[in-house]
Amino acid sequence: MPKLSHQVHLVRRPTGLPKVDDFTVVAVPIADPGPGELLIRNQYMSIDPAMRPRLSNGTTEIGRPIVGAALGTVVASRHPQFREGDLVEHRLGFRDFALSDGTDVSSVVLQGEPVTAHLGVLGVSGLTAYAGLLEVAKLRDGERVFVSAAAGAVGSVAAQIAKVKGCYVVGSAGTEEKCAWLRETAKIDVAINYREGVLRKTLKAAAPEGIDVYFDNVGGEHLNAALPRMRVRGRIAVCGMISAYNSDGAISEGVTTLANMMYNRLTMTGFIWWDFVHLREQFLADMRSWIAQGRMHWEETILDGLENAPAALIGVLTGRNLGKMLLKIT
Ligand SMILES: NC(=O)c1ccc[n+]([C@@H]2O[C@H](COP(=O)([O-])OP(=O)(O)OC[C@H]3O[C@@H](n4cnc5c(N)ncnc54)[C@H](OP(=O)(O)O)[C@@H]3O)[C@@H](O)[C@H]2O)c1
Fold first, then answer.
1. Tens-digit pLDDT profile for residues 16-25
2. Is residue 159 within 8 Å of residue 189, measured between CB atoms?
3. What integer pLDDT is reported at residue 175 of this predicted model?
């Protein structure tokens, strides 16, 4: 049984984009599992943009391991629901070994897919895209859809679900490589590199007939550009605001085009994935079927080693990832 758990701790609250030395890796003694507990050896951690605001707002404690989703193997168990060798998903990421009382731990059963899919396309990223598009935005077949951060974990799934539903899909991303992936692999209709030109103009050219559904991962300038393009009774699903996460209080750039909410009778709805866990079975069935039909593709950007966790988090905030950003814990 390991006597130490190596954990990534926050040393100081970052200002702006986090720096590698805002974090440190420490070795902490770890006990053997007591009654009702299990010991998990983590294999992969999910690296999520939403971790950034939590570093500033006090949710992440200084000198404590950063909380996040992880996949691992049970190496010892005195918990009635889990056995040694089980693959489990849980929230005790940013550490190699985690002792748990079973809270928020669920078993993962593979059906031929790689383990990592359960932190991405078949995990929270996929469920977020599925719920946001189909339940929150109430997407209808054949509509016109805009997805921002479209080459990322959530965005790439949202864009492809919209294609499955026969929609005209425009996606934005920050590099030519990502735009090429969106065109050639995800097969969306138009991919915009938002770093080139004026987004309001490129979006207007890409969606000349307007947008019924905007799946917003970014906020700020993207939201500002999308609002005037929305069609009557259009819906905006507010999934994330990554453009704001590095600023104090996650304050976004000013949104000045809100009058379009009224002109075009729009609905803008924020949502969080955990309100939709009841959809998980349907989501998994649909997603597995789309994967089997070759209609759902995904990418992963994997950094290796706990010491690279800060670089992975900085990377997801600066666009280093194509698809899901993960950390492999060796
Ligand atoms: N509501 C929920 O329940 C929920 C659940 C999961 C995730 N989310 C949100 O969904 C969004 C995407 O999350 P994810 O895990 O799939 O991350 P991701 O899209 O895989 O990675 C983030 C991407 O955002 C882009 N980005 C960074 N700064 C940007 C900016 N200023 N303007 C435009 N794009 C920027 C970068 O790509 P580029 O190279 O394209 O810039 C980066 O790769 C985030 O806002 C996240 O907080 C919400």
1. 999 999 999 9
2. no
3. 98
Of 191, 198, 156, nearest to 175 by C-alpha is 191
Taking the centre of ligand 1 as the mean of its atom positions, its distance from the CA of residue 49, in whole angstroms, is 6
**Please, is 99 exposed, middle or buried when counting C-beta atoms within 10 Å of its C-beta (0-12, 13-18, 19+)?**
middle
Close Cβ partners of 293 (under 8 Å, ≥ 6 residues apart): none
Burial 158-173, CB ≥16 within 10 A → b, else e: bbbbbbebebbbbbbb
Q: What is the pLDDT of residues 190-249, one digit of tens each?
A: 999 999 999 999 999 999 999 999 999 999 999 999 999 999 999 999 999 999 999 988
Distance 240 CA to ligand 1 centre (A): 7
Both tokens of residue 220?
Answer: 């700020």
pLDDT in tens, 176-202: 999 999 999 999 999 999 999 999 999
CA of 150 to the centre of ligand 1 (A): 8
- Distance (Å, whole) CA 275 – CA 312: 27
Tell me if 50 CB under 6 Å of ligand 1. Answer: yes
Tell me which residue of 178, 160, 169 sits closest to 214, measured CA to CA: 169
Q: How high is the mean pLDDT of the chain?
A: 97
Determine the residue of 46, 147, 154, 303 to mutate for testing ligand 1's pocket, defined as the one with the most ligand atoms within 8 A of the Cβ atom: 154
Contacts for 27-34: CB closer than 8 Å, 24+ residues apart: 28/4, 29/3, 29/4, 29/5, 30/2, 30/3, 30/4, 30/5, 30/97, 30/99, 31/99, 32/1, 32/76, 33/76, 33/77, 33/78, 33/79, 33/99, 34/78
Residue 319 in tokens: 């666009």
Whether 272 lines ligand 1, by a CB cut-off of 6 Å, is yes
Among 217, 238, 252, 299, say which to mutate for ligand 1: greatest number of ligand atoms within 8 Å of CB.
Answer: 217
Report the percentage of the chain scoring pLDDT > 90: 96
Query: Positive or negative CA dihedral for 261, 264, 265, 267?
Result: negative
Answer yes or no: is the C-beta of 43 below 6 A from any ligand 1 atom.
Answer: no
- Cα radius of gyration rounded to whole Å, the chain: 20
